[in-house]
Amino acid sequence: MMNPELPADALLDIVRQLGAELHPARGAANLTLDSTLDRDMGLDSLGRVELALRVERRFGVSLPEGTLVNAETPRDLLKAILGARAPQA
């Protein structure tokens, strides 16, 4: 069974790095799995696309089209990543 903490840590690294790049004054180090992508990270639609690209590249997954539109927090993205990595029955 996969340890869900490892993808969570890697996802937070991606989220914090992108947050620091886009909004250096916001304090991206404080972002958590429950931070909001819009309010806390300040992600607009282009920021969400960049986040999706980084996540897909890092985890080797293809996220469903609506994932970034519907995701409100990194935790929502984590669920999508874990779902995309799960073996298909």
Task: Please explain how this structure is put together.
By secondary structure, the chain is an all-alpha fold. It has a domain at 1-10 and 39-84. The chain has four helices and no strands. It has helices at residues 5-22, 45-59, 67-70, 74-85. Helix 1 packs antiparallel against helix 2 (45-59) and helix 1 crosses helix 4. The two termini are 16 Å apart. The relative contact order is 0.18.
Main attributes?
89 residues; mainly alpha; 4 helices; disordered N terminus
The ordered H/E elements are HHHH
Proportion of residues in extended strands:
under 5%
Query: What proportion of the residues is helical, as a percent range?
Result: 55-70%
For the secondary structure, the number of strands is 0
Report the structural category: mainly alpha
Write the layout of secondary structure elements.
Elements lengths: L4 H18 L22 H15 L7 H4 L3 H12 L4
Helix pairs in contact: 1-2, 1-4
Give a quick precis of the structure.
By secondary structure, the chain is an all-alpha fold.
